[in-house]
Design goal:
Elements: H1 30-40, H2 45-56, H3 58-70, H4 72-80, H5 82-90, H6 93-109, H7 114-137, H8 143-171, E1 189-193, H9 195-198, E2 208-214, H10 227-243, E3 254-255, E4 268-270, H11 271-281, H12 284-290, E5 294-298, H13 300-314, H14 321-338, H15 357-371, H16 383-392, H17 398-420, H18 433-442, H19 448-467, H20 492-501, H21 506-517, H22 527-545, H23 550-563, H24 568-575, H25 578-590, H26 592-600, H27 606-609, H28 620-631, H29 637-660, H30 666-696, E6 703-708, H31 710-713, E7 723-730, H32 746-762, E8 773-774, E9 787-789, H33 790-800, H34 803-809, E10 813-817, H35 820-834, H36 840-858, H37 873-887, H38 899-909, H39 916-937, H40 949-958, H41 964-985
Parallel strand pairs: 2-3, 2-4, 7-8, 7-9
Antiparallel strand pairs: 1-2, 1-5, 6-7, 6-10
Length: 989
C-alpha cells in the first residue's frame, strides 16, 4: 500500500498524513461521509476546507470516514475541536506528542489552582488520545510504539498531578522539601506503576495500576504531621485529580488495589509495613506482579531503594521449584476457570480467553519468575523483551518467540481497536456475527472471514505453546508405578504417589479412597458399578489433582458420592475425560447446590460432554427446539410437568457450570436464564390454556397475555430468580360465560385459569419446583385480583399507580400472548404510561423516599449484599428508573428494559452528568458478575469468613481481581462511587 500525499500540510515530509499506510474498510461509506459533511457545514470555512482536503486524500478520507462510521468516541473528539484534527494530521506525530506533554507540564507549573490543573491534564489526554488513535489506525506507528506512547502519557500525567499536589502541601506548610521547585525529591512518597503501565505496554482505554508507598523515616513533613493520614490523603487527591470526570473528560482511571491486602490497608502504605507483608505473606502472583513494577513518580530514590529491598522477594537465588508448584496451580486455575475448548470469534475475550494476551504474558512471566533469580538477564519488564531474552537464553525456541510475539502484537492491535469504539476497557469481541463483521471492517479487514482466519490462527498457536508450559509433574519426579488406591494411609508408596500428584494431605486422601473402594455408599450397590468405579479411580484421582484445590476437591467429591443414587454410566463418562473431572470438581467445591442436583440427576452430565457446551450460548429459537424435543411424546400432564422441570434443572446446571468455569459473561448468563424461563412460560401458558379449555370451554373473544416484570422482564435473571409475572385478559363483555361443560363467568374464569397457571410452575413433583412465582406487582398488589382485565390495567396505570409501580413498569415486557395483536396492545399501554409528562422534583422525591424505605427495611451496611448495599445494584436500577420516568415524555428512545441500555441512551441524550455512565456501567457489570456466582453458590447471606476458599477464588476471578482482598476493596470503592452518582442524579446533591 503506497503512502498518501498531503494536500494541505506544509512542506514537511514527515507528517501523520504522509505516513499513513492503512485505514478502515468501509463497504458503504455514504452515510458516514454524509455525517462528516453535515458536521463540516457548521465548521469555520477555512477549517472545513482543510478537512475537506483530507477527505479527498484516499487514505486520509478512509481513515476519517472509518472513524465516523465505527468509533463514536473518536468522532466526538474530532468534532469537539476541528483545529485539533488539522493540527494532528499536519504534524510530525513523534515531535508533537512530546510537545503536548511538555506544554502541559509547563502549564501546570504556572496553574493558578486545581481547576486549571484539572483542565490542562484532560486537554493533554484528549489531544494525545486522538493523535495516538490516528497513528494506530493509520499504521503510522507500530502497535508497541502505540503502547509506549500511552504509557508515557500516563506516567507524565501521574508525575504532573503528584508534583502539583505536593507543591500545594508546601504552600500550606505541611511539607518541608529540600528543594521547593522539586517537592517530590526526598519526600519519601513514591508511586510504582504496575502491570502494563510498569512494562510500558498500556492499552488504549486502560486503567492504570498504581501502588503508593512512603518512607515514614523521611524528614520531609512539618512537625505534628502524621505520615500515614497525610500521604493517604495526597494519594486520594491524586486518584481524584486523574479520574474524576468533568466536561473535558478524564485522564486515567486509577486502580490502587494491587497493594498488600487492599481490603484492610490504606491507599498509601509505609515501606516498612509493605516489606513485612511481602516477607511474611507475599504470594506467588504478587511476585509475578512485581516483575513489571516500575518507579514512575514521587521520590524516585526512595522507590529504587524499595525495589532493591523487594528484589530478594521477587527474584530467588536458586531455581525456584517451590514457585513451580504455585505456577502449576495458577495455570490449572486458568484452565479450569476459562475452559480449554473455548477458542471462538463471536464473544471471545482476547485478554483472558484461551489463546489470549494473558496466556502469552503468563508464559513469559512464570519462566522469568522461576529462573530470574539466577539469570539476571531475564529481569525485564516488557513481554516481548522477555520472550526475546528467553529465546536468546535457550529457555524457549526461536519459533516459540516468533509465533508468540506475532500473536501478541496482533492481539494488542485488536484490543486497542475494540477499546477505541467507545473508550471502554473491554476485551471481548461482539456477540453477533454481524457486529464482528463491522468490527473487522474497523480493523481494516474486508470481511469477518478474513479477520476470523487470522484471529483463530493466532489464538490456536498461543494455546498450543501455553498448553506445553511446564508439562509434567510439578516436582520433576516421574510418576510412580501403579498403586493400590484401596491400601489406605499405611501404604507409603500410595502416600508418595499422592504427594507427587500435588495433594497436601495425602493421608486424608488415602483414607477417603480406601473408603470409596470398600463399596459402602448407596451408588455402589451393584457389582458392575463397583467394578466400573474401581477402574475409574486412577483417572479420578488424576483429574481431582488437576482441580484448583485438589484436597478440597476430594472432600467435595466424597460428599457427592454419598448423595449419588446411581453412578455406573457417570463413572464411565468421567473416566474418559480428565478435564471433565476437574470441571466437576470446580462445581462440587464452589457450588454445592449444583453438586446436589448432579447427585440426584446424574444424566445432567450429558450436557457437559456435548461438543456444544463450550460454544455459543443457545438462542431462544434453539432453546425452543430443545424444549419441544424434551416434551415430545409426554404421555400425561404429570409427565409433562416432570419433563419441564428436568429441562429447567438441566439448563440451570449447564448455565451455572458455564458461569463457574468463566466461559460465559454475566450478561450472557442472565440472558440465557431469561430465555429458558421465557420458553418455559410460553409452553406452560399454551398447555394450561388448552387443558383449561377442555374442562371449562372458552369465552367469546378471549385473550390472555403474560407480562414479565423484575429480573425476567429486564433479562437479568440469576440461578435463583423468581418469576415476577402479571396476567392480563380480555373477552367479549356481551357474552361473558365460557362454553364448556363446567362453565365459568368472566373474571372468575381468568382467576381460576391464573391459579392453574401458577400451580403448573410451583407444584412440587419428583423433580422439584419449576419456579417460584411472584404476582405482587399486579395492579393493587395482594389486594387486587390475580388476573386483571386489560382495560382495568390501562386505567390503573393512567390514574392510580404509584411512582414505584411505574418504576417497576420500566422493566415490563409481554413474553407470551394468545395473539400478537393483544400483545402489541399491552405494549402500547405500557409505553403510554411511561411516556406521559411527569414533574421531575416529585419523581425524584418518590425515588429517594423509596430507596430510604428499602434501606430501613433491608439494611444497606453489608457491602457484600450487592443488591441492597448503599451504592449497590438497587441504586443503579433506581437511577435508570428515574431517568426513564422524567425524560421519556421528551425522549421516548430512552426506554428499555435493560439497565445498561438505559444508561447508554441517557448518556447519548445528555441527561446524565459527565462521567456518571462510566461509573454506573462497569459497576453494574461487576455486581452482575458477582451476583451470578453468589446466587449459584450461596443460599443465604454471603459471609466471606465462612465461605470456602474455592468460592472466594471464583469470585476474585469473576471480578478480574488478583485475590479476594483486592476484590473486596474494588467493591467498596465502586459502591462509594455509585452512591455519589445516585445522590447527584436523584437527590441533586
Amino acid at each position: 500500500m503506497t503512502a498518501s500525499k498531503n494536500p494541505v500540510a506544509d512542506a514537511s515530509s514527515s507528517t501523520s498524513l504522509t505516513r499513513l499506510v492503512e485505514a478502515p474498510h468501509v463497504p458503504a461509506p455514504d452515510a458516514a461521509a454524509l455525517r462528516l459533511r453535515e458536521w463540516l457545514q457548521a465548521v469555520d470555512p477555512r477549517q472545513a476546507a482543510a478537512i475537506t482536503g483530507f477527505l479527498d486524500d484516499p487514505l486520509a478520507g478512509r481513515l476519517l470516514i472509518g472513524i465516523a462510521e465505527f468509533s463514536p468516541y473518536l468522532f466526538d473528539l474530532v468534532r469537539a475541536e476541528p483545529s485539533r484534527l488539522i493540527r494532528l494530521l499536519s504534524c510530525d506525530p513523534d515531535v508533537h506528542f512530546a510537545s503536548v506533554i511538555e506544554a502541559a507540564a509547563l502549564a501546570i507549573r504556572s496553574a493558578s489552582g486545581e481547576a486549571d490543573v484539572t483542565c490542562v491534564l484532560r486537554r493533554m489526554k484528549s489531544e494525545a488520545a486522538l493523535l495516538i488513535a490516528l497513528c494506530d489506525i493509520g499504521g503510522v506507528w507500530p502497535v508497541m510504539r502505540v503502547t509506549e506512547a500511552l504509557t508515557e502519557l500516563a506516567v507524565s500525567a501521574v508525575r504532573m498531578a503528584l508534583s502539583y499536589l505536593l507543591r500545594q502541601e508546601v504552600e500550606r506548610g505541611r511539607l518541608l522539601p529540600s528543594d521547593r521547585d522539586h517537592p517530590d525529591e526526598n519526600s519519601g512518597l513514591f508511586v510504582l506503576a504496575m502491570g502494563k503501565m510498569g512494562a510500558g505496554e498500556l492499552n488504549y482505554s486502560s486503567d492504570i495500576d498504581l501502588i503508593v508507598f512512603f518512607d515514614a523515616e523521611a524528614n520531609s513533613l512539618a512537625g505534628g504531621i502524621e505520615p500515614q493520614p497525610f500521604f493517604a490523603r495526597v494519594t486520594q487527591a491524586l486518584a481524584r485529580l486523574l479520574q474524576q470526570r468533568t466536561g473535558d473528560g478524564y485522564v486515567f482511571r486509577v486502580d490502587l488495589r494491587l497493594r498488600p491486602d487492599p481490603a484492610s490497608t490504606q491507599v498509601a502504605m509505609s515501606t516498612a509495613a509493605a516489606l513485612h507483608y511481602y516477607e511474611r505473606e507475599g504470594r506467588t502472583w504478587e511476585r509475578a506482579a512485581m516483575i513489571k513494577a516500575r518507579p514512575c513518580a514521587g521520590d524516585i530514590r526512595a522507590a529504587e531503594a524499595m525495589m532493591a529491598d523487594l528484589a530478594p522477594f521477587v527474584w530467588r537465588k536458586h531455581l525456584d521449584f517451590a514457585a513451580l508448584a504455585d505456577v502449576h496451580d495458577m495455570k490449572r486455575q486458568m484452565q479450569v476457570y476459562r475452559g480449554q475448548n473455548g477458542i471462538a470469534v463471536e464473544g471471545h475475550n482476547i485478554k483472558v480467553g484461551p489463546g489470549g494476551i494473558r496466556e502469552i504474558e503468563f508464559f513469559a512471566q512464570t519462566q522469568q519468575l522461576i529462573a530470574g533469580g539466577r539469570h539476571a538477564e531475564l529481569r525485564v519488564r516488557p513481554t516481548l523483551d522477555a520472550l526475546d531474552v528467553l529465546a536468546s537464553s535457550n529457555w524457549i525456541t526461536n519459533e516459540a518467540r516468533e509465533e508468540l510475539s506475532a500473536a501478541y502484537r496482533f492481539l494488542r492491535r485488536v484490543e486497542h481497536r475494540l477499546q477505541m469504539v467507545a473508550d471502554e476497557q473491554t476485551h471481548s469481541l461482539p456477540e453477533e456475527a454481524e457486529a464482528v463483521e463491522r468490527f473487522a471492517h474497523f480493523l481494516g479487514y474486508p470481511n469477518r472471514a478474513a479477520f476470523a482466519r487470522d484471529l483463530l490462527g493466532h489464538l490456536t498457536i498461543v494455546q498450543g505453546h501455553y498448553a506445553k508450559l511446564f508439562e509434567g509433574d510439578p516436582t520433576g519426579t516421574a510418576k510412580l508405578p501403579p498403586v493400590d488406591y484401596g491400601a489406605g494411609p499405611e501404604d507409603a508408596r500410595l502416600l508418595d504417589h499422592l504427594t507427587t500428584l500435588g495433594f497436601k494431605e495425602p493421608v486424608v486422601v488415602a483414607q477417603t479412597t480406601a473408603h470409596w473402594l470398600a463399596g459402602e455408599y448407596r451408588a455402589f450397590r451393584a457389582e458392575t458399578t463397583r467394578n466400573a468405579f474401581a477402574d475409574f479411580v486412577p483417572a479420578l484421582i488424576d483429574g481431582l489433582a488437576h482441580a484448583e484445590e485438589p484436597d478440597r476437591a476430594v472432600v467435595a467429591f466424597d460428599r457427592f458420592l454419598q448423595a449419588l443414587q446411581r453412578g455406573g454410566r457417570l463413572f464411565s463418562l468421567l473416566g474418559q475425560n480428565r478435564d471433565l473431572v476437574a470441571l466437576v470438581a470446580l462445581v462440587l467445591g464452589a457450588a454445592p447446590r449444583l453438586g446436589d442436583m448432579l447427585a440426584r440427576q446424574p444424566q445432567l452430565m450429558d450436557g457437559l460432554i456435548d461438543p456444544r457446551f463450550f460454544g455459543a450460548m443457545p438462542d431462544q429459537r434453539e432453546l425452543s427446539q430443545r424444549l419441544a424435543a424434551t416434551l415430545k411424546d409426554a404421555s400425561s400432564y404429570e409427565e409433562f410437568l416432570d419433563r419441564l422441570r428436568l429441562f429447567g434443572q438441566e439448563s440451570l446446571f449447564l448455565i451455572g457450570t458455564r458461569i463457574l468455569s468463566g466461559t460465559v459473561s454475566a450478561q450472557q448468563a442472565s440472558t440465557a436464564f431469561a430465555d429458558v424461563a421465557e420458553g418455559i412460560v410460553n409452553t406452560v401458558h399454551r398447555l394450561v390454556a388448552e387443558r383449561f379449555a377442555e374442562q371449562h370451554g372458552r369465552i367469546k373473544g378471549q385473550e390472555t397475555a403474560i407480562i414479565a416484570m423484575g429480573r425476567l422482564g429486564s433479562r437479568e435473571m440469576t440461578a435463583s430468580s423468581d418469576l415476577d409475572l402479571i396476567l392480563l385478559y380480555d373477552f367479549d363483555p356481551e357474552q361473558p360465560d365460557s362454553d364448556g361443560a363446567r362453565s365459568l363467568q368472566g373474571a372468575h374464569y381468568f382467576a381460576r385459569f391464573t391459579q392453574r397457571l401458577i400451580s403448573a410452575f410451583t407444584t412440587r413433583t419428583n423433580y422439584g419446583v419449576l419456579y417460584e412465582v411472584d404476582m405482587r406487582l399486579r395492579p393493587s398488589g395482594r389486594a387486587g385480583p390475580l388476573a386483571s382485565h386489560v382495560a382495568s390495567f390501562a386505567h390503573y396505570q393512567e390514574r392510580e399507580a404509584w411512582t414505584w409501580e411505574h418504576m417497576a413498569l420500566t422493566r415490563a415486557r409481554v413474553i407470551s400472548a394468545s395473539s400478537p395483536a393483544f400483545g402489541a396492545r399491552i405494549e402500547a399501554i405500557i409505553r403510554d404510561a411511561l411516556t406521559r409528562p411527569r414533574e421531575r422534583s416529585s419523581v425524584a422525591k418518590d425515588v429517594a423516599d423509596m430507596r430510604r424505605a428499602i434501606a430501613q427495611e433491608k439494611g444497606e451496611k453489608d457491602f457484600w449484599d450487592l443488591k441492597y448495599a448503599a451504592g449497590g445494584l438497587l441504586d443503579i436500577d433506581f437511577v435508570a428508573h428515574y431517568l426513564q420516568l422524567v425524560h421519556a415524555a421528551e425522549h421516548p428512545e430512552i426506554l428499555d428494559v435493560s439497565t445498561s441500555k438505559v444508561l447508554d441512551h441517557a448518556e447519548r441524550l445528555g441527561v446524565l452528568p459527565d462521567g456518571a455512565a462510566d461509573v454506573l456501567r462497569p459497576a453494574a457489570r461487576l455486581y452482575h458478575d458477582l451476583t451470578q456466582i453468589l446466587r449459584l453458590c450461596v443460599s443465604d447471606r454471603f459471609v466471606p469468613d465462612t465461605a470456602g476458599e474455592s468460592l472466594l477464588r471464583v469470585m476474585a476471578r469473576a471480578g478480574d481481581a488478583p485475590d479476594f482482598s483486592s476484590l473486596a476493596a474494588r467493591v467498596k470503592e465502586t459502591q462509594a462511587e455509585v452512591r455519589r452518582v445516585f445522590r447527584s442524579v436523584v437527590e441533586g446533591r
